Amino acid sequence: MHQFDKKKYLYVLAITSLIFFTAIFLSNYFGEKKMAEVRAIEEKIAIDILSSETQYALLQESSCRDVSSSILSQELNSLAEKLSYAEESFGSKDSEVLSLKRYYSLLEIKDYLLSKRIAEKCGLKPTSIIYIYSNEGDCPDCEKEGHVLTYLRETYPELRVYSFDYHIDLSAVKTLLSVYGIKGELPAIIISERVYYGFKDKEGLESLLPKKLKKKEGSTATTSETR
Amino acid sequence: MASVPTALVYVLVFASLYLEVFLLVTFIEKRKTLKREESGLLSLAGYPSVTIIVPCFNEEKTIGKTVDSLLSLNYPKDKLNITIVDDGSTDGTWKVAKSFENKNGVRLFRKENGGKHTALNYALAHANTDLVGCLDADSFVEKETLTKIVKYFEDTEVMAVTPAIKVHNPRKTIELIQNAEYNLGIFFKKMLGTIDAIQVTPGPFSIFRKKVFDDLGPYRKAHNTEDLEITFRMHESHYKIVNSHKAFVTTVAPATLKGLYKQRLRWVHGFLENSIDYKHLFLNPKYGNFGMFMLPAAIFSILSALYLVGYTVVNIGRYIADKITEIKILGVGNSFSVDLFFINTGTLTFLSLALAAIFIFMIIAGKRIAEDARRSPLDMVYFFLLYGLIVPTWLFAAVYNTIFSRRTSWR
Is the overall model pTM greater than 0.90, yes or no? Predict the structure, then answer.
């Protein structure tokens, strides 16, 4: 007669389950660590912005030489990438991701307002782009536009790109959208208070940026300036 | 919430892990028995008479070496009968076979072409020894292989013994891939043998008690996989099949992708068709681990491999499409991040690592059993990089052929 040991099937099931749950545990552990890293960056940005605002207030009466974009948080770009990765990994509906994203949007608005005030005070041309996108499947060009903006962020370190999810449930973002009269047509890009709808390639966007914006040293990508 | 395709991946990965853990636990349970078996393999209480059938069809290049290897066996010549059956070859096979005509214990038969099972049955009808076996005309035995197999027949319950098959002189990439695969097969076969669940008594040198054919009848065509069918039939009758893991046989593996595809398509299609013919064995505790583990595991492996490969291809396709879009927009040479943050630490990553670790362990264990550990690990590298890309081709074709009742050919 054939061998059949029912107990073995059960303890193999127990070992397999143990490995399976260990994998889930490890994944959650590292996921938590990543979320904590995102949270820590957000905290740092919040402090940076507060510090910048204070610095700005202190320098109100000073010359523009003392006010530069370097006082603004340098971590926003790295946070954007990490948050976008977390959104992909844990899902855009994950409550932790959503909460971090809302906080990030608020920080972006604060940073944007601060950089605008500095630009106004010093008579500089604004070096920021506001990008409105959607992940809900109603913006087929948003992925492409995201690549272009990532490229611009990397090529022009002084350029500040603020991206906002059109569908995010946050009153400050809704107000921002209504200030610029953004309708559902996406992607939408705001440069120097002017709204542009639809996909814009890198040459198109570069031509809208101030000419004096410096490129990162050693940048290998071609730009409109080199053509 | 995960999507349905992703949830299905988790279910399949869990089941795959279960199968691997089952074999690993079996190995841990039986490793001492394996050592014990190895120690007394060459001391036989007696030498039963054996007929080895060499069925051949257009095998002029290898049959000489095959018969030479049989003539070199360390086994009493008066107990060994070598029966060559030329199944209507159209090349010089018969001429080569004739050169052995006067050798002691060699018999020659020539018949019209009718397929391998007819050649085997032709010889079986003339066999009157205690044991009978087959050696494909592209395979070669070592001097002690037969003794190491006969040893297992000292257990009167054993009805058939399978050998450990290795690839003959692997050199090309495609042969090296098969070398790693055969080493893995050696591990599988031994583990399955210890739990009464061997799924095939392969053409290269599986030996049976003559009683098996007297009781159960001759070979059948069985979708060109007569070696699978006789195994299923033996399990149906609760006949015990074991594996002699140190009885080495080398076989000429297909040297081209096309040859490999055709061979594997025949095997997998034959397995699926025979599984349908013997569906009453599935998940039936009466047939022990063969019915409860081996058969469901094999069917599951085929289907899950297709699904997981499909899932992976879709994901890789998406990634490539994304990269192409990026390159189209920005050109090549953009910087990429090496931040540890971006390393995938999802559950599937850890599960894949666990699956791969157990898999590597099994190949290495097979390599050690096969005494192939000295070879460079290049075969394993090729196996990991390329095997997964080529397997789905014949799995898909075999499933398609089974569903739409298409036949596969020998060549």
Answer: no
